[in-house]
Amino acid sequence: MRLKSFSILASAALVLVGTSLGFAQDEFVVPDSPEDIVAVRQALMKEDGGILRQAGELSGAEAVAAMQTVITNYSHIPALFPEGSIVGDSGALPVIWEDFDAFTAIVDTGTEAAKTAMAAAEAGDGTAYGAALKALGGSCGACHQQFRQPQ
Ligand code: HEC
Fold first, then answer.
1. Whose alpha carbon is nearest atom 36 of ligand 1?
2. Distance (Å, rounded) from C-alpha 7 to C-alpha 72?
3. CATH number of the domain residue 96 falls in
4. Which residues of the chain are under the pLDDT cut of 50?
């Protein structure tokens, strides 16, 4: 199984803004309209969901690439939640902007876990990798519980 290191999200953002603007392939751009912002962050979340589902079976370079994508996606989360950006089928809750520090703190915690998982995969330490994956998954749940509509 091969994971693309270039994330779907980055391509989605590029499609939305148009490649004719001449951005570098890996440069991330937050779209202008709330509709596009919601679409891009939902695509990012879905990509992370797919990665987390299979990450437990990965090791070595594949695991490293998977964690790199999550780290990149997490780095885009704060910018993809500009104040009041709830439109269409967005499942985001307004409380995000009442406590944006708590929101971004969860992003930071998850990023640290993904970095730990990446280092463990590089070192070939499956036990540490599994533990860090669990912590990473915990960050998804912690944020959803507080900041996303119940499913
Ligand atoms: C800091 C907060 C935060 C973190 C961390 C986070 N999410 Fe989310 N997630 C959200 C919010 C808010 C939404 C609703 C976004 C919207 O619909 O506008 C969401 C939506 C989703 C969706 C639904 C996307 C759709 O198509 O509607 C999935 C799947 C998802 N997240 C998976 C994950 C996974 C897997 C992780 C962990 C690797 C994760 N999320 C981490 C806040 C977070």
1. 140
2. 8
3. 1.20.120.10
4. 1-6, 14, 17-23
